[in-house]
Amino acid sequence: MTRVLMGDFGALHRLGFEEILRVDGIELVRASAADVVGGLVEALPDVIVLDLDQRDTPELVQRIVHDFPTVKVVACSSEQPMMRVFPPLHYGESYTSDLDPALLTSAIQA
Predict the structure, then answer these.
(1) What letters, b where the CB count within 10 A reaches 16 and e where it falls short, cover 51-81?
(2) Distance of CA 21 to CAs 25, 34, 45, 109, Å?
(3) What's the alpha-carbon Rg for the chain, to the nearest Å?
(4) How many CA atoms lie within 13 A of 93 on its CB side?
(5) 33 pLDDT exceeds 70?
(6) Beta-ladder partners of 46
(7) How far apart are CA 55 and CA 97, in angstroms?
(8) Beta pairing partners, 47
(9) pLDDT for 37-89, tens place per residue?
(10) Under DSSP, is residue 62 helix (H, G, I), strand (E, B) or coil?
(11) Which of 42, 37, 79, 39 is nearest to 59 (CA)?
(12) pLDDT at 77
C-alpha cells in the first residue's frame, strides 16, 4: 500500500486528484493547508502531492527533499497540465511529465 499525503489544492482540483488516486494500492491522507510538514511527520507518507501553482511550493519542496529524503514529491500544475516528480533520495533532482491520470498514478506507485 502506498500512502499519499495530499497538500493544499483548490476544491475542484482536490476532488479531481482524489478521484484519480482512489485506486487499489493507494491510501490517501490530506494535510491541512497551514501545516503540510506537520502532516508529513504525522502521516509518514511514501509520496506527497503538492500544488505546483502555489507560490510557496518550490521552497516547501526543497525543505521536504532535504529534511525527508525518502519521501517522493509530485508537484502538479493545473495551469500548464504538467507534473514535476522529485524521486526519493535524489535531493532535489526532478523530471517533468504531462499531467495525465495514468501518468500521475504511475508516478506515485513507481
Answers:
(1) bbebeebeebbeebbeebeebbbbbbbbeee
(2) 9, 23, 14, 10
(3) 12
(4) 4
(5) no
(6) none
(7) 20
(8) 4, 72
(9) 888 988 899 999 999 999 999 999 999 999 999 999 999 998 899 999 999 99
(10) helix
(11) 37
(12) 93
